[in-house]
Amino acid sequence: MGTPLLESGNAYNPFSQGARKEPALTFNDLVQIIFRHKHVLILTTILFAALAVAYTMLTSPVYEASATLKKEQNNTRGGPTDEFSRIMFAQQAVDQIETELLLLRSREVLERVVLELDLLVTVGEIVVPGVIDHRFDMSLAEYLHELDRHPESGAPRIRIEEYTIKPGFRNIAGGVYALRVNERQQLELYETEVDSLIASAPGASEASFSLPHFTMQIDWPNPTPGSELTFSTGTPENVVSDLGERIEIENPINTTLMTVHVRSSSPFMAQLTANTLASSFQASRFEHKREAIRYSAKFIDDQLGEITASLRRSEDSLSLFRGRNRITSVDEGTRETIAFIGNLEAEKIRTELELSQYESRHETIKSQFSTNGYFDQTYLTPQTDQSSSYTPFSTLLDQLTRAELERLELLQRRTASHPDVIAIDERIAEIRSNLAEFNQNTITAYEVIMESLKRKRDNLTRLIGTYNSRVANIASNEGQLMALMRDRDLNEKMYLLLTDKREEMRIAELSNLQDIIIVESAVLPIDPILPRRTITVLIGLVLGGLAGITLVFLIEFQGKTIMSIREVEEGLMLPVLAIMPTFPAEFRDRIRRGYHLRNHLDLLTDTRYGFKESYRMLRTKLSFTLSTKRSPTKNNILFTSCEENTGKTTIVTNFSLLLALAGKRVLVIACDLKNP
What we know:
- 55% of the residues lie in helices and 14% in strands.
- The chain has 676 residues and is α+β, with helices and mostly antiparallel strands.
- Helix 5 packs across helix 7 (236-245), helix 5 crosses helix 8 and helix 9 packs antiparallel against helix 11.
- The two termini are 31 Å apart.
């Protein structure tokens, strides 16, 4: 753009109108701004796209494997209906699927996975002097898999086998260790942080090491002296936490399916971890339920053993008495009395058995209540159908489980004194208080039932004593025979009763315990889920475009360069009279070589550059302006600027020549106030 000429005078003072009015931008203005700085937009977009491509190339791929489990619903309709059987066999109500989802990520299950896959151990680097220096940085399971997968690899076939964590592994502090081969080709185990020798083995093949927290066996064929293998053991807390962060669990709506998603940088470890997590959760739930059954089955087994021995002794005594005294039967009335006493004895033993169950369970729940402040009483709920299993207690128990897990996750980012942690602690205390109220009612109900069973037992004891006194009046031989028959019948009835109970319990153990079914095992993922190259590059292009546009407008509105005539007119509130083109290069060179008036005449007469038209427009507008003055015969025109070398002399010269060519009388005075 050339030099703009502004009109000034006394008719308008821009500072008398207050603040300057900012011009409104139109869509065309925005397009022009972007077009003027298109190189900034293009470069920014290319830069962001290049960064996105670099990110996808440098970021380690992440693979995901999924395993699907199903929560089977137990159904005991048509089963035992008496109170004792319901308590014995309804050991655990049907859990809500949300609870199973939380238990699937519980610390117990995650620790099972960590121990089974030896995730505490990370194989670092193998160094063979002058041959190889290979860094693995992978778990032990993945390292062994890589050895089997690439038998042609040049790395030594070092196998760490039978790695076993000793009890109390939660106390492992972690450390970095090195297996080194000495000059005699013997293995030595060092702790690298202090470079101290921990243990040594006489050979490198099937060498065993035993440390306070783990034992392992090393098979290093044909070791080279000076070779070294480094490995590290992580802390259980960090390893379990890291495993939990790589696990996602989802439950399709209105189903009892649970899908476990495990992410890893290795497709093999993603598949192996997902399958191991599913099987570990299945085994954990099975053991919990079987332990509940075993708790009651142990008492039955003990009683069954005693009754079996008593039945054998009573049958032997009865056979011996009959053979010795040659008495095979008694009269009908005596037989009825014996049968009735036997029924009373059986009912008494059944009552004592049921009372023992209640007393044992009552003692256990009171102990749990005093220790934890509550106990899990969902196993007391008889199993009927899905809807009836969702009791208010089980709902509170689910809320407590969620709150405790939420607190654990929150403590990873907050301290115990943080308001969010304090709030969730208060919520946990409130839930425990509500659970305690339910438990207290249950304990009271247990005490009422036990008191009723004790009264029933005492009444049966008195009734049995009454009929025993009648039996005492019978003849000695018949009385002994009747007593032996009564003992035999009583033991036989109790044996059949306990056998039936034990068989029912065995059926319950086989049918109801395993309610977690692995529907679909995880398969080896082929393509990584992260990074998504196409989406990442598209996002880079979009962000680059947005950043470029933002940068363009920052440059535009932070800069002080005037880019349009309208900005001049609206910013200064003065009209632009004309825009004078800049000199062509050839004329600038001629002027530098020597200043001649002829140069200006050539510019005004040469129509290729548009100088004549620009100065004509300036002459016309000035003539119109001057014609409105009171003294049109004589006018003074001042050309000025606030800087040097802005074209004042050039414009004055050319404009004066144009007026002179039009027959005007012009006096030109060049004044430099700074250099007079």
